[in-house]
Known about the structure:
Structural class: mainly alpha
Largest sheet: 2 strands, antiparallel
CATH topology: Hypothetical protein af1432
Strand content: 5-15%
Number of domains: 1
Radius of gyration: 21 Å
Oligomer: single chain
CATH class: Mainly Alpha
CATH architecture: Orthogonal Bundle
Helix content: 40-55%
Amino acid sequence: MTVLQKIEPHKINGMNFEHSALSSHVPTGGVYRADDELPFSDPLAESLLATRPMQRLAHVGFLGAIDYIRHGNGSSPHRRRHNRLEHSIGVARLADIYANTAELTEDRRLLIVAAALLHDVGHGPLSHTLEPVFEREYGINHHIVTQQIIKGETFWGCEIKDLLSEAGVDIDELIALIDGEHDGDVGFLFSGQINLDTLEGITRCRAFVGRQHAYLSAPSIVRKWASRNRMPSAEFDAFWELKHTVYNLFIGAGRSAALDAVTQAYMVSNLSHFSQEDFFLDEKTFRKNHRALFQHLDKVSLAWKDTRTWKELVVQLPEAWLSTDVAVKLRSFVVHRDVELAGNDTINKRYRQSKKISTKTLDELFAETLLN
């Protein structure tokens, strides 16, 4: 068994990620990228993409509050913010590649492409950042809303449900696939430790961090995965290491956690100005309705790389926010090399993850980020 090195949330090999690009330190074996071109030609997919719930995702950020560390100044993946629609199309593209390479029947191809395209249709504004507050206060999350939208149980009506029915896609099977509860022939593509969603999402995160030439992309991994010659163990191993790095040095890094915490603290302290209906808005409308929240995000974004500005920002925050408890998650992604990757049923045995959660006040978290 090979255990990836234990790292502090902000450092790897003593290196401070907060003030250096991830491209300066990457896992052995190269890095991956998310393709910024997302061509997709399929009648059902094109019809689904034209629906109002899917078009809304073009204005829902991919990473939540973390998106606001990036001020878009170009079209390259590392120069712009990414959105949930791009990610959804990317996952659908991977599903289509897998289906065609593995020579699945047309009905199975339609099922996995539709599931891939719709898997995040229920995400709310600021994505995972505010979802814990919406779930705690209103009992909704993107899993619940995704099901409601697909079943035609929201104010958007039945346009997605009707399109799926017309194409002969079983809606219950599609929802089971999205929820990782499908125990049939294609369930592993969505429920395994390595799946189409995480392949696209992690490579997109990597592309967001900074420019870096890649030796292999998510589509090429999926093509090898779908071929009947062998399981792509070397590619999967390198990807799992990349996921470890991206989570611990970017998604779960100190200032990323602080940014999420500030955003959540604002919503909790101003709850009377929010409602369940906010979850169904896109971020453009959400921002108009909650300008003060985004002013805080913009301040944190500007202070991101400047220690003095960061200190000034902390002083300006309400005392009640600074005493708020923040759950800090340290994830470890482990490759068990003693387990042969003999088939899809061994993926979850070779690739495992663990999570340690500690609780700190926002003030303590800010103090740590200033020291690193």
